[in-house]
Amino acid sequence: MSQAIEVCALPAERQPRLLRLLNILTVLALPLGLYVALVHAGTDASQGDVQRLFYLHMPSFFGAALAFGGALLASIAYLVKRETCYDSFAVAGVEVGLTLALVNLVSGSIWARPIWNTWWTWDPRLTSAAVMCLTYAAWLVLRNGIDNPQQRRRLASVYAILAYVTVILTLIIIRIRPDTIHPAVIGPSAVNAQGSFELAATPGVTTALLVNFPIWALLLPLTLLWHRYRLQLRIEALEQRKALVLNAPLRAAKGSD
Amino acid sequence: MPDTPDTLAFLNLGLTAIAFILLLFAVSMLTRRRNLEQDQRALDELERGD
After folding, report:
1. How far apart are CA B47 and CA A100, in angstroms?
2. pLDDT string in tens for chain A (257-residue length)
């Protein structure tokens, strides 16, 4: 099998029209989503204002799952086609996914303090979310620790494919572990769940969720992914140029022998 | 019926933490972009010097 590495085209300095449109939409949508979550939606009677974190907490997990999913597909594509742009997209996917997964984890922990009376508990859902974050953080460490570019890309691709198991596990664990205290929003919660709320009980909850979900699960991750991907393409191109420029005297000396 | 608890401080803390995480990511992207441009300029100078 050929091990030739295809080098991707450098992105144009000027952003594509669709990306500029995404930038504008994201900048407008984020404050709109916050307004609906903080002002339009009613206050939950049993939890108070902290329940409003939920409108960002849940969609940010799905945003992370989307970005990690992008890394998974890009990794498969890299292993099949050996083109560096797929590896660059995987880097973007993992970094954006990890950022949104941290938003999910930290906002959940802050919500838990007044509702569960603790910042953290080793509940199955919380543990699997933490394992997911650590798995992808380790991906970044591993990737930066391998000098050989081809070996680095190959190992990182295999790792990113395997790491997606932690995303699926985090998604389904509240359905398969009845001992979890984490509430489910769609479908019945586990019997031990604490901090559940009915979507219909407080006015504006469904609207706030319907507005914030596409923003945090789709619009923001896609915009960040595209920007990070463009940056990674430029970083890869610079690394290749550096190798060429710095090795030029060596090649010239060999040529004169 | 029990009173609604005052959890506004936790909402503010959560929003601040979310903003901080996103800001950190944006700053890290901008820093890497700036470093990239510096490296590109250095390589340009190195090539001109040859």
Report:
1. 41
2. 344 555 577 777 788 999 999 999 999 999 999 999 999 999 998 899 999 999 999 999 999 999 999 999 999 999 999 999 999 999 999 999 999 999 999 999 999 999 999 999 999 999 999 999 999 999 999 999 998 999 999 999 999 999 999 999 999 998 888 888 888 777 766 667 777 766 667 888 999 999 999 999 999 999 999 999 999 999 999 988 888 887 877 777 777 66
Contact A242, B39 (CB under 8 A): yes
Tell me how many residue pairs between chain A and chain B have CB atoms under 8 A apart: 81
Quick one: pLDDT at residue B49?
Answer: 76
Q: Any idea what the Cα angle at residue A40 is, between residues A35 and A45, rounded to 5°?
A: 120
Mutate which: A49, A226, A251, vs B, most B CBs within 10 A: A49
Residue A102 forms contact with B (CB below 8 Å): yes
Out of B8, B21, B43, the one facing A106 most closely (by C-beta) is B21
Q: Do A224 and B25 touch (CB under 8 A)?
A: yes
For residue A214, CA distances in Å to A23, A62, A159, A209 come to: 15, 10, 29, 9
Question: Which residues in A lie closer than 8 A to residue B14 (C-beta atoms)?
Answer: 50, 53, 56, 106-107, 110-111
For residues A191 and A183, give the distance between their C-alpha atoms in angstroms, rounded to a whole number. Answer: 9
DSSP alpha helix (H) spans, A116-148: 124-145
Residue of A50, A216, A238 to mutate, testing the B interface (most B Cβ within 10 Å of its Cβ): A50
State the pTM of this model.
0.91
Count of CB atoms situated within 10 Å of the CB of A18: 10
- Cα separation, A236 vs A7, in Å, equals 9
| Interchain proximity B17–A46, CB inside 8 Å | no
Residue A204 near residue A36, CB atoms below 8 Å: yes
